[in-house]
Amino acid sequence: MRTYPQSTRSRALRTAVATVAASAALGSVLVTSPAAATVTAAESEPGSCKISDDPSWSGWTDHAQLGATLKQIEKTSKGRVQVEVAGRTTQGRELWAARVGTGPRVLMVTSAIHGNERTGTEALIGILKELGSGSGPETAELLSKVTLVAMPMVNPDGGELNRRINVRSWDQTVAQFPQLAGAPRAWYHSLRGDGIDQPGYDLNRDFNPDLNYVPRASDLPGTQTDAGFFLSPESRAIRDTYVKMRNEKGSVDAFIDLHHMGPCESITGGPQDGKLISVSLDYPPLGVNDGAKYKKQWPKLDQDKSRRYALTVANGIAGAYGEQSRLAAVGRYLHPDAREYAGQGRSAFALNGTGTVLFEVRGQQDDLGQQQRGMFVQSVRTGVESLMTGLATGSADQVDGDDFFKLPDYGWETTAD
């Protein structure tokens, strides 16, 4: 559950944003996003420090609408976009994976693993529509070099309750894994979440770099710095999709995990000093910068690759909006050296050799007005498309990963992704 710092800094947005080129900073635009929403000076700044006492998801795509939309995209694309059910939640909802492109480089993107974090879902819908129906040579070139696998809503049970965690009791877990009978509950299993009296897991702690791992009673309850246990069907579906693509293509080059953060964080230093952050980015939270303590067991870990990919995203957003735009207020996610989350999906996949990037959009869905929502969705879309372009052109492999550390910091953030 999110918490907020005391800062309530907010300003009016004084500039309007026009047509956005997905990756202008990379020198080769393969996908062009539609025009971003225009905001007048009367509008509050995107994701301002407004905190609703009655959170709502009005205007956001829900699970049923997502299913219908993906079906229509698949039909309109004449099979270019392929949609499959990668798994089902405890409550029986489909977990969809949509695939487009035939290229050797694989980008996998997940959204809404925390059920109340939704800009990524909307951004992925837009990308899939564009790639499914685009007829220009740039789109054809991109799809010949990159395969995109998008899972736009991987925690729909939590999403239906507008909360962070999923819905799954410990008894249901033990029923599926009887070897856990009598063991303590996993540390990331909660009896209630966001004020709702239903148990569930923080799915973004339920991953293990051993992709064949089977839950063991002796490993429970575990700690924050440990790998997770694949106790929920959602995390297993994400893992299975990753393994499927790795087996088919030889590797998954990049993985993006789309999240939200608190609405009140401000950039510190540089030309954006004092502006509310739009997006923060991170490489895997696996200790000191090179992840040295993991290398012996997981020699494929390449933290610099993850930083190169995160920097490619930042460069793409800055190039699309202009460095002075408030939407280009991109920073490094709070990442102390001692911050360890080995059970996150991005950590598990990084330990298997994938370059992984965390997106954190400022403000939850109930903090965003309609125009604000459109602008942040566009920013996420631009970032994802920037990495796609960077993988296709090879430019994402050529940037200096150390330059990631030149991205600005921001005010204290109190919510773990």
Automatic annotation (TrEMBL):
Transmembrane segments: none annotated. SUPFAM superfamilies: Zn-dependent exopeptidases. Its cofactor is Zn(2+). One of its GO terms (molecular function) is carboxypeptidase activity. Residues 1-37 form the signal peptide. Belongs to the peptidase M14 family. This is M14 family zinc carboxypeptidase. It comes from Streptomyces viridiviolaceus.
